């Protein structure tokens, strides 16, 4: 078995580079041959991953955060190349959805055991019409505005940057008219945000779509309707437990395809990566990705 290990050295403020030796040694003990790559830029990461998949590599394991995982999804979706994740970033939402532990050394041991046993699982993905794939959550509105602001900020570093951005966006909060159309429902309302979940988590472990299951062929959709900023401040803490779905301002749907339109110029983000301005049409593609699971 020939396995490729792709380490994104900058992930987790250098955490991926620091654990790369341990991860490589762990995987090497479980496979016949391990090729290791350490790309120096996002473009080089994409190029390496595409080349590995085109060459028919059986498995690719990525050490990094959600951005690295997202790049791996784009390369491996719709192919027989299995994707493994060793979390070493800030959010690690895809790894969390796979049930992998936070400790990259422990996660690497679980991935190595699955490689040795030949275990694979099929994983649903979201597909953006005219765009790429996503594995976790596509969001727009307040959440994506926070992402936009974070991407413009140079201080502070790490997770605190999101806290600062949330406060700033709350101050600028305004609702927009949102249309959410599925294969069976149409929802039209003034809203603050919408999240289309293939898995439950975004933003470093926030279960915005708490019941989403990437093996059931469905999206879970969470819409936060028009709310005053003081109400949104009350909703935000409940996001950490998933109990926000019980708030009167929140509507949930299940769908296989979703069309999102708004008059507010909202930007869509998927897996924490910028997609484009709404309108967006997305569909759930069952079993589109082969993954290397953690141990059960």
UniProtKB/TrEMBL annotation:
GO cellular component: plasma membrane
A Gene Ontology molecular function term of the record: ATP-dependent diacylglycerol kinase activity
Record PROSITE patterns: DAGK
Keyword ATP-binding appears in the UniProt entry: yes
Keywords: ATP-binding, Kinase, Lipid biosynthesis, Lipid metabolism, Nucleotide-binding, Phospholipid biosynthesis, Phospholipid metabolism, Transferase
Transmembrane segments: none
Entry's Gene Ontology BP terms: phospholipid biosynthetic process
Cofactor section: Mg(2+)
Domain DAGKc per the UniProt entry, residue ranges: 1-132
InterPro entries, per database record: ATP-NAD_kinase_N, Diacylglycerol_kinase_cat_dom, Lipid_Phosphate_FormReg, NAD/diacylglycerol_kinase_sf, YegS/DAGK_C
SUPFAM superfamilies registered for this protein in UniProt: NAD kinase/diacylglycerol kinase-like
Family per record: Belongs to the diacylglycerol/lipid kinase family.
Name of protein: Sphingosine kinase
Organism: Kibdelosporangium phytohabitans
């Amino acid at each position: 078995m020939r396995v490729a290990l792709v380490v994104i050295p900058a992930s987790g403020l250098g955490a991926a580079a620091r654990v790369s030796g341990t991860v490589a040694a762990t995987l090497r003990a479980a496979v016949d041959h391990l090729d290791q790559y350490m790309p120096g830029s996002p473009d080089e990461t994409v190029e390496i991953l595409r080349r590995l998949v085109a060459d028919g590599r059986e498995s690719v394991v990525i050490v990094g955060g959600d951005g690295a995982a997202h790049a791996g999804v784009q390369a491996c979706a719709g192919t027989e190349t299995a994707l493994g994740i060793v979390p070493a970033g800030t959010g690690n939402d895809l790894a969390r959805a796979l049930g992998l532990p936070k400790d990259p050394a422990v996660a690497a041991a679980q991935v190595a055991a699955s490689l040795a046993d030949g275990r694979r699982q099929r994983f649903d993905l979201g597909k953006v019409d005219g765009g790429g794939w996503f594995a976790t959550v596509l969001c727009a509105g307040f959440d994506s505005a926070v992402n936009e602001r974070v991407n413009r900020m140079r201080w502070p570093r790490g997770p605190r940057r999101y806290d600062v951005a949330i406060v700033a966006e709350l101050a600028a909060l305004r609702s927009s008219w949102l249309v959410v159309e599925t294969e069976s429902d149409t929802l039209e309302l003034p809203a603050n945000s919408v999240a289309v979940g293939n898995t439950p988590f975004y933003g470093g472990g926030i279960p915005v779509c708490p019941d989403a299951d990437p093996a059931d062929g469905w999206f879970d959709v969470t819409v936060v309707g028009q709310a005053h900023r003081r109400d949104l401040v009350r909703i935000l803490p409940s996001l950490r437990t998933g109990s926000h779905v019980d708030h009167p301002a929140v509507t949930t749907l299940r769908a296989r395809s979703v069309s999102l339109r708004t008059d507010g110029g909202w930007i869509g983000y998927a897996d924490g990566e910028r997609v484009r301005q709404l309108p967006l049409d997305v569909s759930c593609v069952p079993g589109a990705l082969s993954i290397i699971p953690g141990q059960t």
